[in-house]
Design a protein that fits this description.
Elements lengths: L2 H14 L3 E5 L1 E5 L22 E7 L18 E2 L8 H13 L1 H6 L6 E5 L8 E2 L3 H4 L9 E4 L11 E4 L3 H5 L7 H6 L10 E4 L5 E4 L5 E2 L5 E5 L6 E2 L3 E2 L2 E2 L11 H7 L2 H4 L4 H4 L4 H5 L4 E2 L8 E7 L6 E7 L4 E4 L5 E7 L1 E4 L2 E4 L7 E4 L1 H4 L3 E5 L5 E7 L16
Antiparallel strand pairs: 1-4, 1-23, 2-3, 3-5, 5-12, 6-13, 7-10, 7-12, 8-9, 8-11, 14-15, 16-17, 17-18, 18-25, 19-24, 20-23, 20-25, 21-22, 21-24
Helix pairs in contact: 1-2
Length: about 400
């Protein structure tokens, strides 16, 4: 299909939808961990053969999942336009200004963020996401991220996340203490050098790239930079040895040949990983937004402490209304409840009716949100870089 044809399809859809587009869910498989089976899919749908298990749902995604095997569009969201098949990535490429606004499109190549739900039945292995300086070497973006643990879902068997290392390791320059675990690649004892923090419902954490972490089993709604880079540092997980190729997945072959496992230690942000006040500086409970509070509902910041992305939780009371005005393009996930968002019928867990993309033009004028059900309408909003420059920042502690 020609780019001009795609452009016309997107613009026509935006015109018909008053600047709003429906999106279809994007399901992503992983083969190194069992699924938590809490995504709302039929039981049989989680098993996908050689690909592993459906363990993640990517939301408003223009990022392809970097899996060993899988379909060519895995991870990419598709527009919900009847009779047409187009990814959101294609829509941004051919009609970026119509979706993101002229000014934003001039300074940003794309939406620049990825929202996802991940759902594992075991803790994710200890790993990092490469910082910009290292991700750039393999032609990728860095991956700063943030987590939110929703209130109404089972936490799983291990609802605690390991972050960083014990501070003395960095204070005394003993970073090489981790090297033997990477070389031997036989167990999970690398975790003894880290600290675990409880996954608390309704709260979360902000995590810069380069920081060691092993997320717990709480169902997690994550917002991050648009990247899928990582290096796994834990060999044994969920009762099996994972492939050591995942340690070097985003390392240049020449760097692996020259430096071996030590190259990974040089990709770690040791300052933040060894912060003795990591919790105080990275824990992110909701921050109520008093400026937008209305009789029908209220909003809170749940992703903040960075301008690389940001996000809100909107709760509209039964029978209530809420008017939204934002600074730029965003997408939403309707988590729970039923209602109308900008003229679109929406319902949590009704796939195909729980995701929308709101263009810049629509976002910057009032949008009416109505709760037509008998329970709270809960909606998550996801924003890309440089849209909410006034997002709250956690005051530095202990520095």
């Amino acid at each position: 299909m020609a780019a001009s044809t795609k452009h016309n399809i997107v613009e026509n859809a935006l015109d018909r939808g008053n600047g709003i587009l429906r999106l279809e869910p994007a399901w992503v498989a992983r083969d190194f961990l069992p699924p938590g089976r809490r995504l709302g899919l039929p039981e049989a749908a989680y098993e996908v053969g050689e690909r592993g298990w459906i363990s993640e749902r990517w939301i408003g995604s223009t990022t392809k999942a970097d899996n060993r095997v899988g379909p060519p569009d895995e991870g990419l969201s598709h527009l919900g336009i009847e009779g047409e098949r187009m990814t959101l990535k294609e829509a941004i490429e051919v009609a970026g200004a119509a979706v993101m606004g002229q000014a934003y499109a001039k300074t940003h190549k794309g939406l620049g963020r990825l929202a996802k739900i991940y759902d594992f039945g075991a803790r994710i292995p200890f790993h990092i996401h490469q910082m910009e300086k290292d991700a750039r070497l393999v032609g990728a973006n860095s991956k700063e991220e943030a987590y939110y643990f929703p209130e109404d879902v089972d936490l799983g068997p291990h609802p605690e996340t390991f972050f960083g290392v014990h501070p003395y390791i960095v204070e005394q320059g003993k970073q090489d203490i981790l090297l033997k675990y990477l070389v031997e690649w036989k167990d999970d004892l690398i975790l003894q050098h880290s600290r675990a923090y409880l996954n608390v419902r309704g709260e979360g954490f902000h995590l810069p790239s380069g920081v060691l972490h092993a997320p717990g089993t709480a169902l997690t709604i994550e917002l991050q930079e648009d990247s899928d880079v990582f290096a796994m540092l834990q060999a044994l997980n969920a009762g099996k040895i994972i492939s050591k190729d995942l340690l070097f997945k985003d390392v240049r072959p020449e760097d692996r040949a020259a430096r071996g496992e030590k190259v990974i230690l040089d990709q770690i942000d040791w300052k933040i990983s060894g912060d003795p006040y990591f919790y105080e500086n990275r824990h992110s409970p909701p921050v109520p937004i008093t400026e937008t509070r209305q009789p029908g509902g209220e909003e809170s910041w749940i992703y903040y402490n960075t301008t690389k992305f940001s996000g809100k939780r909107l709760v509209v009371k039964p029978g209530g209304q809420f008017r939204c005005v934002e600074k730029g393009v965003y997408n939403i996930l309707v988590w729970r409840g039923v209602g109308i968002f900008g003229g679109y019928d929406v319902e949590g867990l009704n796939f195909g009716h729980d995701e929308l993309l709101i263009s810049h033009a629509a976002a910057t004028r009032p949008i009416l949100v109505e709760n037509t059900g008998g329970a709270d309408l809960i909606i998550f909003k996801f924003f890309g870089p440089d849209i909410n420059l006034d997002v709250p920042m956690i005051p530095p502690y202990g520095r």
